[in-house]
Design goal:
- The protein is mainly β.
- The protein contains no helices and eleven strands.
């Protein structure tokens, strides 16, 4: 198990909020990850999985806005995969759900009506910023040590379903990466 904490200035979980809908000065996150990596089968196969959860507390800035309060934001992630040795490298598949807010309630004080005396009536509304659907990614990969453990060559194909940026349906990405390790 891995645990940790961090502070993000001016944002929360990579999201910026500034202006009429609220201003974020920063956020503190505490997280926990459980990793599993086991040998499987006679061919030196590997099964791996990761489960993670986090709690983030937003620190609101003093700027005027409609934002009144924020509840702790809950987020989670999960992945499951397997690999086999193939042609001097490892080929595998991974199914994952990237980090996503599962509960992100924020309370706003909204103008709802104008009174006869010219004043404004307000009401509190709670809005949950967590997405309605969960992104699921499926990836195929081939990794090979290209140079004495310092350079890793990787080719991949990734299919993303319900990704927040995928307005027209699933997204498919393919490519080649070189990773350096020192």
């Amino acid at each position: 198990m891995v645990t940790g904490a961090g502070y993000e200035e001016g944002a929360f979980l990579g999201n910026r909020l500034d202006g009429l809908l609220g201003s974020v000065a920063g956020s503190a996150t505490a997280y926990g990850l459980v990793n599993l990596d086991r040998r499987a089968g006679a061919r030196a196969g590997r099964l791996f999985a990761q489960l993670g959860a986090a709690v983030t507390q937003i620190e609101r800035a003093d700027a005027p806005s409609l934002l009144v309060d924020t509840a702790p934001i809950l987020s989670s992630t999960a992945s499951l995969g397997g690999s086999l040795p193939v042609a001097g490298g490892r080929a595998g598949i991974v199914i994952s759900q990237p980090v996503q807010m599962t509960h992100a309630a924020m309370t706003y004080r909204l103008p709802v009506a104008r009174r006869l005396d010219g004043g404004v009536s307000y009401a509190s509304r709670e809005i949950d910023l967590s997405p309605a659907r969960r992104e699921t990614d499926i990836g195929l990969f081939f990794r090979r040590d290209a140079w004495r453990g310092y350079l890793l060559a990787e080719s991949f194909v990734e299919w993303r379903h319900d990704a927040p940026h995928a307005l027209a349906g699933p997204v498919v990405e393919a490519g080649f990466r070189l990773r350096f390790a020192f």
